[in-house]
Design goal:
heterodimer; A: alpha+beta; OB fold (Dihydrolipoamide Acetyltransferase, E2P); 7-stranded antiparallel sheet; B: alpha+beta; Gyrase A, domain 2; Elongation Factor Tu (Ef-tu), domain 3; 2 domains; 6-stranded mixed sheet; 6-stranded antiparallel beta barrel; 19 strands; globular
Chain lengths: ~130, ~375
């Protein structure tokens, strides 16, 4: 899978991608889905729901366990990825282009992104 | 300190994800739990279960001793036969569940759970007072390889094992020039073998099985698929579905307890009373009616009232639904076909009580 440019990663393994139109795409990093193993079910929020940075906004069930997914920044949900709800295995195949989770409008200050890492730094941190 | 089996390096080389389980550093999956699961249901899989305990019991009172510590009737156990047993405390609660094999007159093998070896040994030592019996924990000297699936028997034949044996039997056998104990048992609901081999030969045998098994579609299988396989077969997992506060009657294991056994054993009064008069809680199997997944310790509701708790839950790769085991209040309305609810992240999800096992077992083999 391709690692998109312009993503930032959280230490809890979510990515935040700036779409350049005032919205951001949020999902799980390739490392996170690899660790989870076979993903079989996910619960996503509804369009219009609002969350603060660090809130649980989704739950992902792998064969092994349920995992909570956290907001990398504060935001309002503007779109959810229906395709990944129907076919959770998309997440295992490509968590960025196919398996992203939600699109949000950021509602917080840009400084909320200060603790997010560039992909290369995130990878380095994992080692 | 975390222990490693003699096959640890093999798992790492095969790219397994390793986790700590019952004090052991074990492979949870090599590629994908679902793929590994299907390999065992369709072809054949190889498991390293060397973490499990092997205890030999010998001496002229061996049979008498075993009869005192399990509800099953060991005096009826024939040479080379195996029996599924429980190890109850005085209140009928379970210290462990085991398989006992008869290897000769006054010579038995117990295979027990890795997490319970110490408790089992303590309990056995406490119960041997006055008896001429030797309890010999050989867990550290043996590796245990499980070969499971519909093509296991073909693979074992190809490798020269004499597979002319019924399920639930054990034989001193030979495979690839190695002297082993071969038992036709497993924890998957499939036909298969468990091979007890001295540690020093385990790596050779592991490699050889994977090599010879290629034509049968063999794959190494981790603990993740071991769990989903045993759940589909509705086989209990100690620590989840069995514990010291749960009796075999509550656990749905009455089928394994002879009513006519004369010898006294720990917890007999409680167990016999429950067989006669019933229990307050009992084990049920259920399938979720939506896509949600019930997990260990989630609460179970019926008609708005909390009636129990999930002890094992997960996906059924074969059925494509999510399934589980739960202990519920023993009332007649909560029966097969009834709809219960499982509390998942503060929401109730419907589940239907279904008969166990969830997937038909195919492990009863008779050759004689």
């Amino acid at each position: 899978m391709n690692i998109p440019e312009n993503i930032l990663c959280s230490k809890s393994h979510e990515f935040l991608q700036d779409n350049g139109d005032g919205t951001y795409t949020v999902g799980l990093t390739d490392y996170a889905v690899e660790q989870l193993g076979d993903i079989v079910f996910l619960e996503l929020p509804e369009v219009g729901d609002e969350y603060s940075k660090g809130d649980t906004f989704a739950t992902i069930e792998s064969v092994k366990a349920a995992s909570e997914i956290y907001m990398p920044v504060s935001g309002k949900i503007v779109e959810i990825n229906e395709k990944v709800v129907d076919s959770p295995e998309l997440l295992n195949e490509d968590s960025y282009e196919q398996g992203w989770l939600v699109k949000i409008e950021a509602t917080g200050d840009e400084s909320e992104q200060n603790d997010l890492l560039e992909y290369e730094d995130y990878k380095e941190e994992l080692e | 300190m975390t222990k490693e089996t003699y096959l640890h390096d093999k798992h790492v080389q095969l790219g397994a994800r390793m986790v700590d389980f019952a004090g052991w550093h074990m492979p949870v999956q090599y590629t994908s739990i679902i793929e590994e699961h299907k390999t065992v249901r369709e072809n054949v899989g190889l498991f390293d279960v060397s973490h499990m305990g092997e205890v030999f019991v010998t001496g002229k009172d061996a049979e008498k001793f075993l009869n005192k510590i399990v509800p099953q009737d060991i005096s009826k156990l024939a040479y080379e036969k195996a029996v599924y047993c429980q190890l109850p405390n005085k209140k009928g609660g379970l210290i462990d569940d085991l398989i006992i094999y008869k290897l000769g007159i006054d010579w038995f093998l117990i295979i027990c759970n890795a997490s319970r070896i110490d408790e089992d040994l303590n309990w056995m030592v406490r119960n041997k007072r006055g008896l001429n019996v030797k309890i010999d924990n050989q867990s550290h000297n043996y590796s245990l390889l499980a070969i499971q699936g519909p093509r296991a028997v073909d693979l074992m034949n190809k490798m020269g094992l004499n597979t002319h044996q019924d399920s639930f039997t054990i034989k001193l056998s030979e495979i690839c020039g190695l002297k082993v104990l071969a038992s036709r048992t497993g924890y998957t609901g499939e036909d298969g073998f468990e091979i007890l081999v001295e540690n020093e030969h385990s790596e050779y045998l592991w490699d050889k099985i994977l090599e010879d098994g290629k034509e049968f579609g063999i794959k190494p299988i981790g603990l993740g698929a071991r769990d989903t396989l045993r759940l589909e077969a509705a086989l209990h997992l100690y620590g989840n579905d069995l514990d010291e506060n749960t009796t075999p009657v509550e656990a749905g294991l009455s089928w394994s307890i002879p009513k006519e056994k004369t010898a006294d054993y720990n917890g007999k009064d409680v167990i016999m009373n429950q067989l006669q008069n019933g229990t307050d809680k009992r084990l049920i199997g259920f399938k979720m009616l939506d896509k949600s997944i019930a997990r260990h310790e989630y609460d179970v509701y019926f008609n708005g009232e909390k009636v129990g708790v999930v002890t094992s839950g997960g996906v059924s790769p074969v059925l494509g639904t999510n399934i589980g085991l739960a202990y519920v209040k023993n009332i007649k309305e909560i029966c097969a076909g009834a709809v219960i609810q499982v509390m998942i992240r503060e929401k109730l999800h419907d589940a239907e009580i279904v008969k166990r096992p969830f997937v038909p077992k195919r492990n009863i083999i008779r050759v004689s």
